[in-house]
Each structure stands twice: as structure tokens, then as C-alpha cells.
Amino acid sequence: MMSDGYYNSKKTDDICEDVCCQVITDFFNGARGALSMSRIRCMLNGIDLRTLILLFVIIPLAVLGVYLHGQKFTYFLRPIWDKPPKPFIEVAHYYNENVTMETLCKLHGWGTRDYPRRVFDAVLFNNEVDMLAIRWKELYPYVTQFVILESNSTFTGIPKPFFFGIHRDKFKFVEPRLTYGTIGGRFKKRENPFVEEAYQRVALDHLIRVAGIEEDDLLIMSDVDEIPSRHTINLLRWCDEIPPVLHLRLRNYLYSFEFKMDDNSWRASIHRYQPGKTRYAHFRQADYILSGSGWHCSFCFRNIQEFIFKMKAYSHNDRVRFSHYLDPKRIQDIICKGTNLFDMLPEEYTFREIIGKMGPIPRSYSAVHLPSYLIEKAGEYKYLLPGNCKRESG
Q1: Best CA proximity match to 268, nearest among 240, 296, 300, 244
Q2: Secondary structure (DSSP) of 194-241
Q3: φ and ψ at residue 284, rounded to 5 degrees
Q4: What is the DSSP track for 359-393?
Q5: Is the model more confident about 127 or about 5?
Q6: What's the pTM value of the predicted model, to 2 decimals?
Q7: Per-residue pLDDT tens for 246-256?
Q8: Which of 220, 217, 210, 296 is nearest to 260 (CA)?
Q9: What count of Cα atoms within 13 Å lies in the side-chain half-sphere of residue 363?
Q10: Residue 303, beta-bridge partner list
Q11: What confidence tens digit (pLDDT) does each residue in 264-285 have?
């Protein structure tokens, strides 16, 4: 009952009586400054400590964890949301320097040609000067024409100089067999990097034809750092009845030949060229793969700035999620530990493989069966050999 004959039929509760009604009283008494705090007290009244911890500690930490490590959660759960590709059909690889080519071809189930096929090695070039030298020295005895295309733009639209043009004197040994082309970048902002990559690969198709390739010549399709062994190429140019498209299984290294990850590099391929049909690509194009065919040395650079440039320039630059990933001291530390530059989990399709490859890559102390030029010039390329993880800063 209220004064002056008025009756209030609204129900009240303990919270209103203890706290919320005080808000109104304070307001009309002029205590406006206390209004906000009283309102908060009203809202929080009756909420227990566990609920407060959930709201203000656990949930914010969970959000922060997803922001920092969400990519790891996604990759770890890959066996649930993704399926492995169809397995390759493995082609056993036989080789010994003292065995005749006729015998080697026969061991593979192939015939022997009267004369070898011509071989064209075609690459898109970014800034891998040392790896290109090692590659071309390895393949030089058996390659008819070296084809190289360079753009003044990275796949991510970053302007770059023509690095091969700057260092061309280093490659005088291939000059009589060289077809070198340049192409201007399109510099499309916020475009998917794979679009620019595809654009450059189409241009490389044209350059290969300019180089004079003909039907049934062999065409090597691989990145600069995916290096087929010379005996593999010699085998395929002499043997008859080889598959029209054959992928090459390469030993997979990271940062140098000290850190061998596995033998699962498969994107490199070799093609018996068919005019109007063969297209330069870097994805799976056939089911057959030749084992033990060479080396893939990823992020194998001489100096730290080359690492930073590659991280920002290549098609997977979205993996640079935080600016501190590009810190030179961090990069040097990771190179020597053999861990991941992008703080990623292994890209595998089973929990067993993911867990088995977590952590640093085991060191290898073997420099046996590596590209011959690398061993011949070990002093010049010592950073690629076991025990030499320190990089130049320039």
C-alpha cells in the first residue's frame, strides 16, 4: 500500500529490494554518479563465481586460442574432414653406374631406343639463384634446351627485379642451349595468388614452343628446387615405351640437405610432349610415379632476406599470419632447429602421420647421393650441407 490512497500491485523480489530499487532511490536523490555502478551490481547480483570465471576468463582465453592456433586445430583434424588422394602406382627404379642402359631399361619393363630423345627443362623463376645453378649443373649432360621464364612480379603481386637477368653471367655454361623469356606482372590487388601463377604457366607454355620442342621430346615440369637426378633423365630419354606422363618421387628436404622430411615429394613430372595437348602444370597429371628420382629442397636459401622474400612472395603467403613470423632472428633459430617457419602442423591425412611428424625434423649427417655439383662446390654451398645451418643476414 502506498501513501495518498494509491495501491501498488506489482510484485517485488529480493534483488529489487536489496539493490535495484536503490538505483532509483539514488537517482532521485541526485546520486547520478553511483547509478552506473549500482546498475552493474544489479546485473551481477545472483551470478556465482563459476559463471564469472566462464564469462571473463575461460571464454576470452578460448577465443584467443582459436585466433592464435586455429590453423593447428584445423590441420590436426584433417583426417576427419579430408580424404587422402588416390595412391600413385609406384614404378620401381633401378640404377647402377656399372649396368648397361639396355639392362636398366629391361629391368623397368621398357625397350631400348636406337637414339635418345631430346630433353627440355622448363621452369618459372623467382629468386632461387643457387638452386638453379645446382639444378642445371645436374641436368646439363642430358638437356637439349633450358627454358626459363621470369616475371617482374611475384605470384602475390609484389614487384621484383629480374633476378636471373642480374645473375645471368653465372649461367654462361648453358647460354648456347638457353631460351630465356620475361613477362610483365599484372599487379592485381587482393587477387588469389594462384591466378597469377596460372597466368605465368600459360606464358611458359608459349615459351616452350618457341624453344623448338617437338612431338615425343621429353619435357620436365617442376619447380626450380625440385631437381631430377641426371641418371633418371638419362634413363627416360633412352628407354622406349615409357608412360606418356610420369611423376617423379623426390627426397623431400627443408632448409638444406641436413633436414630430410620424407620421400613424398611428387609434383615434379616428365612428359612425352604432345603438341596441342601437353600443358605446363604443377599438379597431379597421372597415376604412375617413378621412385627415387631426385631431390626437393624447399626454402633452401643462402641468406635470411631470401627467406623473408619467399615467405611473402609465394602462393601460400597467407600462412604468414603474424608479422613476427618475418623476424630474422626467429627465422634463423627455426632453420637451425628444423622446425616450421609458419608454426604449422604436418599436412598429412592420418593422425598417426601427423603425430609422427610433429616437432623438429631429425638431422641427417649423410651427404651421400646428393647432386654432384653440390659436392664438387661444397665450399661455396656449405650452407646446404649438414652442420652448417647459420645463414648470411643480407
Answers
A1: 296
A2: HHHHHHHHHHHHHHHHHTT--TT-EEEE--TTEEE-HHHHHHHHHEES
A3: -65, 130
A4: SSPPB-----S--HHHHHTTTTTGGGSTT----B-
A5: 127
A6: 0.82
A7: 999 999 999 99
A8: 296
A9: 10
A10: 392
A11: 999 999 999 999 999 999 999 9
